[in-house]
Write a structure and sequence with these properties.
There is one protein chain. Helix 1 crosses helix 8 and helix 2 packs antiparallel against helix 7. The N and C termini lie far apart (about 55 Å). Strand 9, helix 9 and strand 10 form a beta-alpha-beta unit. This protein is about 45% helix and about 15% strand. Strands 1-11-10-9-12-13 form a 6-stranded mixed sheet, sandwiched between helices. It is globular and about 90 Å long. The chain has about 450 residues and is of the alpha/beta class.
Length: about 450
């Protein structure tokens, strides 16, 4: 890993491992045991099909119910959802759909003049089948159902297959997740989680439709399964545990900063929460507040097992003090965080200069929670520095930009002649002759220089 100059950087709290101090890669790339397990299971699912998926669902999730849910089964499982919960989910789906449809409207077919009466362009078409993975072992990830399925629908995808594991409390897909899937546009729903869920989507099990692309977050086994299947299917990205970074100056409210860090640390025991500040006073106060807020959250959730933040903050929490906003940008871009909040007096500077993040939240009104749940932009975002080379899930992930060309006979005098010479320059005589025969047919008796290097 390339070194990073830490001169002048003060760690008020240092994580056990971070993008500054250790390997920070997605999926199971740095976990041989995970990699081998996923490879073995996918091979068994590929060869054994639906019965192997059912066996793994029973073994790993203690689930023996139906896999492909019927409309009647879905309606039965969602019938007791309170009206207020349905209304909130409806609002969320509307917001996500609105943002996705607006994005789609900006992506258009186009064509251009290639000269001599020839034209070429790009046609934008959706994939036929999208597989949407929605986590669900601990919580009901209703928002992920909306973020994946509604976005696929806005892109124009015909077959939207959602899959989620059974909830550990109920033994079924969480009813609000199920309602979210249905409302967002799922055409079929599978009750399968983990590697077996991803495998079923890729191999077209239970539905008879192989996914063209698989999207959605999950644990390291889900991420690794997507990574290994890439090529057979498209994927949105290989993700890791959720991340938050906050850049804050002396004008920020330390309680707000600390609360936001804890809000994302609760995702899991390996979810990092990072703060970069130009104010040592604020950094020290946040360092004092976060453990208090984690302890309170843990106590309030004692009846359901507490919060994973009791593990994630000590191990993966980090607070850094820098000397300038330029240093803050440099470190932030190194981390390429999934969620990046800016709580400073100069929001536009950071908006203009930051380049690596999944989604940016500018100002105190823009907490990650709003983006995670209901504001509109997608919450399926790159983690583990993947934001260096891609953005989050959007309608574009479900679209293919297909190029086309319609060349006139006249263009063979320019495009055709050049193509023949370049082909021979590369030693590809068969290619060259495909250009030659057109010149002979379209312009009988005319002579053309078809040899590289000026030879006739």
């Amino acid at each position: 890993m390339a070194s990073f100059d830490l001169t002048g950087i003060q760690f008020v709290k240092k994580a056990n491992v971070s993008p500054l101090t250790g390997a920070w890669v997605p999926g199971g790339e740095d976990d041989q045991e995970c990699q081998n397990l996923v490879r073995t299971m996918l091979a068994e699912i590929r060869d054994g099909g639906e019965e192997v998926c059912k066996a793994y669902a029973e073994k790993l999730d203690n689930y023996t119910g139906p896999i492909l849910l019927t409309e009647e089964e879905i309606e039965e499982q969602i019938k007791d959802i309170p009206d207020q919960d349905k209304a909130d989910i409806d609002f969320m789906v509307e917001q996500v759909s609105m943002f996705a449809k607006e994005t789609r409207s900006k992506i258009t077919d186009w064509e251009t003049d290639l000269g001599h009466g020839s034209v070429g362009g790009t046609k934008v078409v959706p994939v036929q089948t999208a597989g949407c993975y929605v986590p669900g072992g601990l919580y009901g990830y209703t928002a992920t159902a909306a973020m994946t399925a509604a976005t696929a629908k806005a892109a124009g995808v015909k077959n939207i297959i959602c899959t989620a594991p059974s909830n550990k409390k109920t033994g079924k897909i969480h009813p609000t997740t199920l309602y979210g899937m249905k409302k967002a546009g799922a055409t079929q729903i599978l009750a399968l989680g983990g590697i077996q869920g991803i495998g079923a989507l890729a191999y077209g099990l239970f539905t008879g439709k192989e996914a063209d692309i698989i999207v959605g977050p999950g644990n390291k086994f889900v991420a690794e399964a997507k990574r290994q299947l890439f090529g057979r299917v498209g994927i949105d990205q290989v993700a890791g545990p959720t991340e938050i970074m906050v850049i804050a100056d002396e004008t920020a409210d330390p309680f707000i900063v600390a609360t936001d860090l804890v809000s994302q640390a609760e995702h899991g025991p390996t979810s990092p929460a990072w703060l970069i500040s130009t104010s040592s006073t604020l950094a020290e106060e946040v360092s004092r507040l976060v453990p208090e807020l984690v302890a309170k959250l843990d106590a309030d959730l004692a009846s359901v097992g507490g919060t994973p933040a009791t593990k994630s903050w000590p191990d993966f929490g980090e607070i850094i003090v820098v000397g300038s906003r330029e240093e803050a940008v440099c470190i932030s871009d190194r981390y390429a965080p999934e969620h990046l909040e800016i709580l400073t007096s100069d929001l536009e500077y950071y908006h203009a200069n930051l380049t690596n993040y999944g989604s940016l939240f500018l100002g105190e009104g823009s907490t990650v929670t709003h983006g995670d749940k209901a504001s509109g932009p997608n919450h399926v975002l790159p983690t583990r520095r993947v934001a260096r080379y891609t953005g989050g899930l959007s309608v574009e992930k479900f679209l293919k930009k297909l190029t086309w060309q319609k060349l006139s006979k006249e263009s063979s005098k320019t495009i055709g002649v050049a193509s023949a010479r370049i082909a021979r320059l590369e030693g590809m005589e068969g290619h060259a002759r495909a250009a030659d025969v057109r010149l002979e047919k379209f312009f009988p008796g005319e002579k053309f220089n078809l040899q590289p290097g000026g030879k006739m």
